[in-house]
DNA sequence: TGCGGGTGTTACCGGTCAGTAACGCTGACA
DNA sequence: TGTCAGCGTTACTGACCGGTAACACCCGCA
């Protein structure tokens, strides 16, 4: 949604965004909820209030749409990350704790950042990597770079908070977060083990900062 | 199913198992490596050295094969679990540590239990839940029961080792394990954060046993 | 007034999907 | 000798997939 009324649309319909944007928004929702392979371009186009022909005027192929979907979800993720960490700009530990706490909120879709956006099915990029064929280096490259950046950021935060083994702590925090996303696929709402991440992360941080 | 040369096959071909078994074996490999939706019954039948018609003589539908695949992978998992924990029958902490250490070995496919079985793509059941449509209660039920059992076992081990908050510790350990499986999809071999699980799990256990 | 970009519509292509019908062969067993 | 289960083979259905061709329309802009 949001989507701003694109840069160059002086008059334009007030609540009818460009076709390309409608398609991408719809694709994001359907891909996330049902998986990439389960959703055809025909279904996306129809759901977006247009048709397949108009779809192919905006995207060269379904693969291009998928790539756009992945980049879009990645952008949303970093937006969430930055919003959550911003209030604790020079306290790396509280940044991590804020992220962890927000993961829990996200799991029960109560986050302010993702206001009623969609019921949580965990990590869009991670789930996509189940469906991406191994020889598709373009798509799997996007996912890999994304996960590598998460890892880099968490390791950096661990280093900044003075952890004894920052890489180990960063990776451990990543495992907890990824585990939360993954189990979210199987356990509805907050019935899964996600809630344990709050205490676990704090205990790990304590252990790495102690004596 | 009984696998091996079924009860009533006195002579029988020595190295040519029944069609049904060949199909199931092939399906397990292909589903795990490429995903469920990506592999058609035709491909499975051909790879198993037979054809689609013979396939449908053994399985009423693809969904039934998928269900069998999930149950098979689950059985393999518990077999692994029991093998790894057996040597430390009355030391719950060492059981957990053995499991954790074996997860690392598994990630770099060096486990004795899964000798050269397949390059690791994490948890078969978890990955399947990405592709299972939400209204398919049969398949998603299998996955849910499986993950719930993992959770139950880890919580029980945490309780047996005298943790202060056994459910929290059990769930935290589960998050670490699931995170290991999940990230294994993105990071090849042991380049990912999986290795951190060893120290992280021990630190968490220590924290829950202290005081 | 005319032009042209963005869009909707219909029909089509070749390929693949899950699933079925019908027939023929072989080999164990009685 | 006959039977019958197990398996291979070919050909088929109807639906859907990703992707394309050709044409009509509307509307802002010059």
- N-C termini distance of chain A: 49 Å
Question: Largest contact between protein chains?
Answer: A-B, 51 and 51 residues
Strand content of chain A: under 5%
User: What share of the residues of chain A lie within helices?
Assistant: 55-70%
Rg of chain A from C-alpha positions? 19 Å
DSSP helical segment count of chain A: 9
Give me the secondary-structure category of chain A.
mainly alpha
- According to DSSP, the number of beta strands of chain A is 0
What's the oligomerization state?
Answer: homodimer
The topology string of helices and strands of chain A comes to: HHHHHHHHH
Largest sheet of chain A: none
Mean pLDDT score of chain A, rounded?
90
Net shape of chain A: elongated
Residue runs with pLDDT of under 50 for 5 or more positions of chain A: 1-15, 112-117
